[in-house]
Amino acid sequence: MKDLITVIAKALVDHPEEVRVTAKEDDRSITYEVSVHPEDIGKVIGKQGRIAKALRTVVASAAVKETKRVSVDILS
């Protein structure tokens, strides 16, 4: 899952070397935090959050097999 998010995020930004994805896991959920260069934050979020919503939809679809809830947070 982490690799999927990394590939998608790197394709969207101008500074792909600064994309970092970390996972925080607890009993019921896994949260993936995507950190990008400050200039690229708008490219990952998109107009009115459309790209971020699409990224979350793809991750949710890929996480159907997981027994835990999966979410994606975008950090600058």
From TrEMBL:
Keyword set, alphabetical order: Cell shape, Cell wall biogenesis/degradation, Chaperone, Cytoplasm, RNA-binding
GO molecular function, one term: RNA binding
GO cellular component: a single term: cytoplasm
The organism's place on the tree of life at top rank: Bacteria
Localization of this protein: Cytoplasm
Main location: cytoplasm
Listed GO biological process terms: cell wall organization; peptidoglycan biosynthetic process; regulation of cell shape
Family per similarity comment: Belongs to the KhpA RNA-binding protein family.
Subunit structure: Forms a complex with KhpB.
PANTHER family noted in UniProt: RNA-BINDING PROTEIN KHPA, UPF0109 PROTEIN SCO5592
Biological role: A probable RNA chaperone. Forms a complex with KhpB which binds to cellular RNA and controls its expression. Plays a role in peptidoglycan (PG) homeostasis and cell length regulation.
Protein name per UniProt: RNA-binding protein KhpA
Origin species: Paenibacillus solanacearum
Gene that encodes it: khpA
